[in-house]
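Notebook p. 47: complex prediction with dihydroflavine-adenine dinucleotide.
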Amino acid sequence: MALLDRAIVRLLPAVPKPVVQRLSSRYIAGPTLDDAMRVVRALNAARKLATIDVLGEEITNADEARAIAGQYHDVLARIDEEGLDSNVSVKLTGLGLELDYDLCRDNLESVVVDAHARGNFVRIDMEDSSTTERTLQLYRELRREGHENLGVVLQAYLRRTLDDVPGLGNVRLCKGIYVEPPAIAYRDFDEVRANYVRCLEALVDQGTHVGIATHDEYLIGQALRLIRAAALPPERYEFQMLLGVRPERADQLVADGHRLRIYVPYGTHWYEYSMRRLQENPKIAGYIAADTVGRLVGR
Ligand code: FDA
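Predicted complex, structure tokens below:
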């Protein structure tokens, strides 16, 4: 990322919320479930699969956590009714992880059971490193109890990740987006890439179903190389990308015959997610400048 963009990223928390909302609108389906359904219908029509995320990591009490779980039940029902090709992605903090492990477990289990009854699947997103151990524990507990329609996420920037691979049945592999200390996380761009490739190889070797979640051309190339070398059948992997990021590259992967899933967030709690997306947009300074000029000219 260029120097100016890095400087702007540091100033992002000072950017007024309406500007953040405008700039990040491409990353979010909209505030309502209808918005998410509209986006997923369009993705499916373009032969892309989806995973729907109810934005809600800023919850503060058990009722809000149960309400998020309730929204996931609504999402699963609508996917079913409309016959859409989408699963769901959940954040454990949204389901109450920071309030009470058992509350979170109950909420997660209810969503997983509902998804199973509808022939659907639940992915647990991975959040910051304070949650890694508990997230993997909850995933393993539910899988041990027979909930096989459940997957988890590993982050290649964490030094521990290669050791977490053994035994995991269904994994989305991403670089990782939270700010972590160097003692536990690789900070160097090339080190993160190298660890991503190591972890992907280990996952493929042990037969894990893997979601290759990246927009990084180098990593897409490495994944394609691995897929060819291991003659991986389409049901063993899929590419995954975020709504609003490199859609043309996604089109190309689909045209080349790969399964591809788009992460579709919706909801009213858009701020935290939007800030993370803007922080990694390599053209952030330009967008902020254009937005500012646009408003000045508009005035
Ligand atoms: P990188 O950041 O190097 O981006 C590669 C290229 O993609 C950039 O050069 C640019 O062209 C483009 N690009 C990337 N981000 C952009 C943006 N916001 N706007 C415009 N262009 C952009 N993380 C996590 O910690 N836990 C999780 O559960 C998940 N879940 C998840 C699901 C899916 C489907 C994806 C694709 C990603 C995640 N992530 C995640 C986020 C992930 O960890 C990472 O932060 C982003 O994917 C960016 O990393 P890349 O591998 O794309 O590389």
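Notes: The chain is about 50% helix and 15% strand. The pocket of dihydroflavine-adenine dinucleotide is lined by residues 125-126, 153, 155, 172, 174-178, 213-216, 240-242, 245-246, 263, 277, 280-282 (CB under 6 Å).
Next step: compare against the earlier run before touching the bench.
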